[in-house]
Amino acid sequence: MAESQLRGKSLSAIAKDVADGFITFNPLLIKRLDSSAYKELLQQLKKVQQEARASKFPLHDIDGIRKRNMRLQRLNQAITILEHEARERRLSLA
User: Fold this and answer.
1) What are the distances in angstroms from CA 28 to CA 11, 64, 67, 77, 85?
2) What DSSP line would sit under 4-43, residue for residue?
3) CB contact at 8 A, 86 and 41
4) What is this structure's pTM?
5) What pLDDT, in 10s, does the model give residues 6-30?
6) Closest by CA position to 85, among listed 76, 73, 75, 93
7) Rounded to an integer, what distance in angstroms lies between the CA atom of residue 70 and that of residue 5?
8) For range 34-61, the mean pLDDT
9) Assign residue 90 a region: left if phi > 0, alpha if psi is -120 to 50, beta otherwise?
């Protein structure tokens, strides 16, 4: 089965770009996705979030701490938006 795409990129690439701040995640970005793509995108976002949390915490590097926290913040915001839009469309993400 071919992987779903958004803006010509795979959903895993979209999740990484959201984490790095290259793509701003908003409801218009996910407007054309179907229910299976919602589930897959949520899975990819949570996977990238887990990887970011598992990375070594930079104790004395202020910029490193800031970058790590910004990545986690962007991912959390994207997951919240995705879950809210799924609820609005009455899609099950379970």
Assistant:
1) 15, 31, 26, 15, 10
2) PEETTEEHHHHHHHHHHTSS---TTTTTT--HHHHHHHHH
3) no
4) 0.88
5) 767 899 999 999 999 999 999 998 8
6) 93
7) 25
8) 93
9) left
